[in-house]
Every structure is written in structure tokens, then in C-alpha cells.
Queue: 3 jobs
Job 1
Amino acid sequence: MSRLSRKFKVPDPLANLYDFANSLDVRHFVHHGMQHREADEIAGPRELGAWMSRRGLLFTGARITPAMFEAALDLRSSVRDYLQRDPADRRKGRHAVRSLNAALKSFPLVVQGRDDRGMVLGPARSDALAGLSAVVAELYDGSINGTLDRLKMCASEECRRVFFDRSKPATRRWCLSSLCGNRMKTRAYRKRRRGLV
């Protein structure tokens, strides 16, 4: 679990998925006069290894190959594409589901017995990317117990951060109402006002 997933109170069973989806930061707005710069925490195989290591997901000292790195990027891209859809429409988006299924093939899961937790889903692969199977397991578990529907992408085109919707009706559209929500509402208000003039 990262500092950000703790700060925004993302439940532990979704924290790796949340962090993985947000390892690509495409925010490009100006806030308090400062231009936000886009960033990628896993810009290369070495950075991916470091990212996994910080989260306890790097189970082996094996090197992450360029092909493994591409598989990880495909997974992240597919997860982000899936999460950007309204939860009610996620299963209907054929392209998003097809893309996600193709990426998930690289991260097969097996059922494993654990002394302390009963049965869990674990990685079928044993190489350097085995730890990313934890992200896939969180995706699966969240879809089964309904918490994945609360993991959403900010509706602001200038943000696109994934957030956990803690609102009671689960209808939030922005990661932060005070930032993205306010900016979008102000923009819509100005557009309406221009139409009246």
C-alpha cells in the first residue's frame, strides 16, 4: 500500500490495483499557477522492478525483460481503459473487455491454500512479473465482491486519475470535488454564461 492509497483511504484489497492504475499520471492542468507535469512511475523495466519492490510484489531477483515490461504496460493500459467506463457499462464495452482479457492472459492465477487465510488466488507464473498477479487477483476479487464498481476514473479530461468512490450512493465523478469537480463546474458555468450574452 502506498502513501497515496492510504491518504485517500483505498481499501487494502484494492490498493495494489489503485497504485498500478495510477502509476501513469496524465494530469495536465494548472493548479495555483503551477503546471502539473505528466509522469510514468514505471517508464522502463528497472522502474517497474522498483515499483513492484516498494509494494512487496517482486518475489524474485530475476530481471524484467522488455517483453515482460510490454506485458505489464498492456495490463495497465487495459485496466485503465476498463476503469474509465461507468461501472454499469464496463461489461458492455466489448473492446475494453476484449483488451482486458488479452492482457490478463499473461497473468494467470491459481487457487492456493494458505494457513492464515484459507484459499487465495496466487500467481501461476514464477518469473519476475509473478507479483503483478496480485493486481489481477485484486481486480477479480473486487469484481466478485462489488468493490471494483467504486474504483473509477476522474471524469476530468485534464486529470484521469483513478479514485475510490467512498460516497454513500457511489455516484462521484471526480477524484476531488474541490479540485477537478470545481474546475469542471466553473468551466460549464462560464460556457453557459457566454451562451446568454
Job 2
Amino acid sequence: MIPNLVVPLIVLDRLGSSDAAYYYVSYQLASLLYQTVFAVEQSFLAEGSHTGTVTRAFVVRSVRILLMLCVPGFIVMVLLAHWMLLLFGAKYAGNAVSCLIALSTAVIPIAANNWLLTVLRLANRLKAIVISNVCYAVVICGLAWFLAPHGLGATALSWPIGVSVGSVVAGIAVVNVIRRQSGSA
């Protein structure tokens, strides 16, 4: 939650109130995509917790569902970004398209990250989850601060980059979990 709270403050402080408004609306629109990821992840977690086992078919199905929902949603968001922002006014459409596209780009790494974190939750690897989330938050907030002087679109790129870093860290932990499970089987 830290990036959700800190990045808007960075935008406000470093870019001003107009850009903060553009960021807020762009983030809210992109979060519509993110909610799909969170819903699939919660279903994956509930089903995995209920059965107590995570089979290959179960994993493949959850990845397939994520991709079927996220990729078309991302494409629609990118293609309609200008018109969606136009609903909030011409200034939003003129100033926030790059921000919305950058934030929408984060949906794929967010899907990967949430999927990986769910695997770690099911494997009861709390330490790996915490480390991944700390990396995610530090990179997003740090990049937002560093990229802010380059404009709103550049600042928004902190999300896909930061979430990708968190995904790599979580992915390494998942690979270690799989290796341990394969070694003990």
C-alpha cells in the first residue's frame, strides 16, 4: 500500500496540483485493470487453500485466466486512453494519456507479481513475500521521486518497473520453493 499513498504525494510535491489530478484519474482508470488481477488472485488463493495442493493444471488454468483478462483489458485501455480521459475534460486527455498508458502497462507485471505471491502464500513463505513487497515499494517510490522531473508519464513508469522488480524477487523465491519441493519428493 505504500506506493499507493506515497506516489501521489511525490507527484503533488514535484509536479504540482494539476499533474496530481491527472495522475489520480489515470491511476483510478488503470486500477480497473488491476482489480481483475486481484479478483483472480483471490480465487486462486481460495481454491489453493481449500484443496491444500497446487497441481500443474491448477497453475496453468490460473495463468490462462489472468492472461485472458489482462491482455485484452490492457489493449482496450491503451487504444481508448484518450477517449476515456476525455470524459474528464480536454486537459485530462491532453496531459494524462502517457500516464494512463504507463500505469496500464503495469497490469501484466502486477498479474505476475500477484500470481507469484499467491504461490508463496500457499507455500507459507512469509519472509519471501515481505522481501518482494519491500523491493516493490522501494523501487516504485524511489523511481517516482527520481523520474518526476521528467514529467508525469515518466513518473508513472515507476509502476511497471517497480512491480517487475518485485516479480523477479518473488519469482526467485517461487523457483526455490519448487526446487525444494522437487528435491523432497
Job 3
Amino acid sequence: MASIVGRIAVIALLGAAFVEGAVAQSYPVKPVRIVVPYPPGDDNDLLTRLNAQKLDEKWKQTIVVDNRGGASGMIGADVAAKSPADGYTILLCASPECALNATLYPKMSYDPTRDFSPVTQLAVSSIVLAVHPSLPARNAREYIALAKKRPGELSYSSVGAGSPHHIAGEWMKLLAGIDITHVSYKGGGPQIVDLMGGHMHSGFVALPVIAPYLKSGRVRVLAVTTAKRSPAIPEVPSLSEAGLTGFDVSQWYGVVVPAGTPVEITGKLHADFVELLSLPDIKARMADLGAEPVGSTPAQFGELIRSEITKYRKIVKETGITIN
């Protein structure tokens, strides 16, 4: 009897594995939704649509880009977290909703490490410290010196309280010992318009947002916030090089799916997204946006998310940043 039961169990396992494998091979058989937790036109949306077009061609299925902006990406992330774990809802996950917010908000409707399964980190880009050309600062050291001479007079913009851009600004203030005023904007579009128009002294701006204007002469980039220089603007030094040792705030983008999604589908998604990142036109367009393709494994992306939460928790505590 025991041997019969054992054989039945083995057959059942093999059958389940066969079914799961068949599901992965046939996936997708209907339209796939990619939730973007930000408005149309921002860097997250641009990157999503770039990949969505290629997936549409590869899968022969409609890819629906669903913009659900608001609450620092948490509205869209919550929508994705509560969707069926069947591979037909994907979240384009950036650093705020998948790491930073967990260190700022005591109550969230989802847990980025519990409610999602990582697929891959798509890309990483820098945030830049940029100023209006009228400001007499040619580099980050001069900017810091100017801020020390004029305490409380200079201001900097970000795309919102609690954003990586805001974190970068407050961390710079702490490490440099300067007093500058934070002004929050609702998105990179309005932020860059006011910076180029001279309505703001400076701003921490996502590189993909500012990239189209770098040659216009209407804005000057002083430094990147990543530990190393960006390949997109290698002539621009990092804040770490300017004396803020260890400074590293990046804007990264990745793909996650609701927890419980079959591993075979997660594996297919990983393979297909990584394949797209190797396409010459995708790489060229990302370079234009100032983003570097990554294509990490699910395990590597999961580790990045956890390490970023740890890093930001320390920075938030040191700077005393609070969100009302």
C-alpha cells in the first residue's frame, strides 16, 4: 500500500510539473498589464513603454500600460500587489515604492519584500544636482561654498517629499553642513521647466528627465548622486568626488510580479526582459535617457531591494526626514 501511495505522489508531482511547464510555454495567452505607479511622461513611464512595445512584438499579445500615479508610487504598487498572481499583471517597480517608502511610512498597504516576487532589475540611472546658469557655481564644491556663504537663501527642488531626489538633497545638506530650502514638485516635467526658467536656484533631477536639455545651455549639471560617474555624462563628477565621501543615491527600475506567481512564468519574464535589454535599439534609447541596462537575476534584484531598504532606513534616521 505504501509503495502504491508513493507512486501516486510521484505521478502527481510529475503531472503538476508538466502542467506548470506547459503554462510557462504557452504564456501569455491574453493581454498583459504593466502597472506604472507614476503619471505618463516621466522616466518610469518612458522606460516601460520602451519595453512594452518590444514585448508586444515578441509575445504577439497586447501590452496594456496602466498608469496609476500618486502617493510616491504606492497607489500603483498596491494595485499590482492585490492583482491575481498569474503573470498577467506586472509592476514596473522603482526605488521609492519598492524600497524607500518602507523606511518613511509607518503604515503601508503592501510590503515590498513580502507581497512581490522580483523578476529583474531593468536599469539604473543617476539623479543629478543641476542649477540655473545664473547661479555662480560651476561645480559641487563651489555650490556648497556658496550655500555656506548664503545660509538659508538657496533652494533646491525635487519631484516630491520622500523621493530619492529629496533624500539626496537632505543627505547633501547633512554631510556638507549647509542650509538650503527644499521645494517639492509634482513630477519631473514641472520641476525642470521651473529650473530652466530661473524660478529655482537648483534641483535634484532624474538624469532621464534632464538629458534632453543638457546641450541647451539653460541648465548646468554640477554632479551626479551615484557613487561613480554616469557613462551618459562621464565628464560630470560625483558628489562623493566633491568631498561627500560615500554618497550614493541612484534611481533604479525593475520588474516585479505579485507574490505567488508561478516560478515558471517568473522565469520566462526574466528571460524575455533580459533579452530585450540586449537589443541594440533598446540599449541606444536607454543611453539617450541616461539609463544603464542591468538585467539581474531575480535573486540579485531581491537582494538589491533589501539592501536599499537598509541603506535608506539609516539615511532617513540620520537626516530626520519625516513625511506629513
